[in-house]
Design a protein that fits this description.
CATH class of one domain: Alpha Beta
Radius of gyration: 18 Å
Helix content: 25-40%
CATH architecture of one domain: 3-Layer(aba) Sandwich
CATH superfamily of one domain: P-loop containing nucleotide triphosphate hydrolases
Number of helices: 8
Strand content: 15-25%
Number of strands: 10
Length: about 240
């Protein structure tokens, strides 16, 4: 944790909305370059709403939110795409385009975010596939891949533009325990080798107990950081 640096993400007295309703009140949170962070809690506790606030999908009702240099609490619509390019988002259900190959999924994202040079595009696709151990799968269609392989491609997609932070919403939720472990080791590798901050939303205590990081718990309309590992063991936060 690099608290001698400015935080990448900062929430101050933030009231977090989940759709129409406020789900969390007075949230204070700072995430720094190189951090490995969990936001945990029961289903419906508001943890995913925090991620959606970070990327300006949900408006902030009250308080301040700054993400990668953007003031999300008063961000202009035209600046939201630039904010999201700073954040690599990984979803539980992969969100791959099913009508095109792995290569073309990644190429689509690069072109959509302003890449024009063909050789640079091909080089970056090769780099991210190698980083996630999927360099031989570029020609495959998503339906030809296992769940774990699809999630690796989703992570490759998330790191294409070298984001400052990866925001992963229940990234192991659809995976068996062994495959989930491989995905978590991949997040650790990216965090350690690239210095990319990683924020993972989960309700699975086995994940954050086996792959340590800072832990924020959402419960009773509040979100607080745990200060000692012993607290985590005693928490009943799984469904």
């Amino acid at each position: 944790m690099a608290q001698d640096k400015e935080p990448l993400i900062s929430l101050r007295k933030a009231h977090i909305k989940g759709g129409e309703d406020t789900v969390l009140y007075d949230v204070d949170m700072e995430i720094y370059p190189g951090d490995f962070v969990y936001i945990v809690g029961k289903v419906g506790s508001g943890k995913t709403s925090i991620i959606k606030t970070f990327i300006a999908e949900y408006p902030l009702e009250e308080g301040r939110c700054e993400v990668c240099g953007f003031r999300v609490h008063n961000i202009r619509s035209r600046d939201i795409p630039a904010l999201r390019r700073k954040c690599g988002v990984v979803f539980q259900d992969f969100m791959l385009l099913t009508d095109r190959s792995v290569h073309d999924n990644l190429e689509f994202v690069l072109k959509a975010t302003g890449w024009k040079d063909t050789s640079a595009i091909e080089k970056r696709i090769s780099e991210v596939l190698e980083a996630v151990g999927m360099e031989t799968k570029d020609h495959k269609m998503p339906h030809q891949l296992s769940g774990g392989e699809q999630q690796r491609i989703a992570i490759a997609r998330a790191i294409l533009n070298r984001p400052e932070v990866i925001l992963a919403d229940e990234p192991t939720g659809n995976l068996d325990a062994e495959t989930a472990g491989g995905i978590m080791k991949l997040f650790q590798k990216i965090n350690e080798s690239e210095g990319t901050a990683v924020v993972i939303v989960t309700h699975d205590r086995h994940i954050f107990e086996n792959y340590p990081g800072r832990v924020f718990v959402c419960a009773d309309e509040r979100c607080r950081e745990l200060k000692s590992p012993g607290e985590v063991i005693d928490l009943s936060i799984t469904i």
